Known about the structure:
single chain; four-stranded mixed β-sheet; 53% helix; initiation factor; eIF3h C-terminal domain-containing protein; protein biosynthesis
Amino acid sequence: YQSCLLGSFQTVELIETFMNYQENIRRCVCIVYDPSRSSQGVLALKALKLTDSFMDLYRNNGLTGEKLREKKLSWVDIFEEIPIKVSNSALVSAFMKELEAESPVSQCDFDRLKLSTAPFMERNLEFMIGCMDGLSSEQNKFQYYYRNLGRQQSQQQAWLQKRR
């Protein structure tokens, strides 16, 4: 586990410690948590492990700028991010729901309008506008089809009556 500030977790101490862990425990990962990003409304958790190419280079005491350039490794190639999924059990979810204060629907939650979430909100609104345009277009197509169907049925009934 490593706590970091604003995503600055790549330190020599972390690499040395994690190198020892990864050599002794085959399937270990480092969980990195950023509380500053979490305070902005983003759960900043990462699961990382050292890449094999970096571990080989580090084991051979070849951790110099020249060796890194020779192996074409940059700071991005030191760690490999492993996707993680955080979920609650049904019992915990039910408990959390009970702990929530019951608030009337008319009460506004202005915390959702903070500027830290503005890019996400803007993207979601653009997506919603596109979906609404699509829905409007499909409604118009359906109404046009339904009107034509009514006309054709009335023409068919008129033709059948004329034929009789």
